[in-house]
Amino acid sequence: MLNRLQVIDYLTPSGGAVYHTVVSGNTVYALSRRYDSTIQQIRSWNGLDANYTIRVGQVLRVK
């Protein structure tokens, strides 16, 4: 059964980076595990603050 909140993942046109649209319950830690990245990489790519604050609907580079 699918969650009522749809997760959207997509590649850049060049096929390099992977982006993820944040849904309720996502954390930077969980995204780093899901996409085999580090939390530090996700923070750097997205200019996140020291608290790793993310918002529902925010599009993050995750790989």
Question: Which characteristics define this entry?
Answer:
2 helices; 24% helix; 3 strands; alpha+beta; 3-stranded antiparallel sheet
What does this structure look like?
This protein has 2 helices and 3 strands. α1 (28-34) crosses α2. The model is unreliable at 1-5 (pLDDT under 50). The longest helix is centred in the last third of the chain and has 8 residues, at 39-46. A 3-stranded antiparallel β-sheet has the order 1-2-3. With 63 residues, the chain is of the alpha+beta class. The protein has helices at 28-34, 39-46; strands spanning 9-11, 18-21, 59-61.
Brief rundown of the structure:
By secondary structure, this protein is of the alpha+beta class.
The low-confidence parts are 1-5
Strand order of the largest sheet: 1-2-3
Amino-to-carboxy terminus distance: 27 Å
- Average pLDDT taken over every residue: 85
Number of DSSP helical runs? 2
- How many strand units? 3
Strand content: 15-25%
Q: Please identify the structural class as seen in this structure.
A: alpha+beta
Give the C-alpha Rg: 11 Å
**What characterizes the major β-sheet?**
3 strands, antiparallel
Helix and strand run: EEHHE
Q: Helix fraction?
A: 10-25%
3D shape: globular
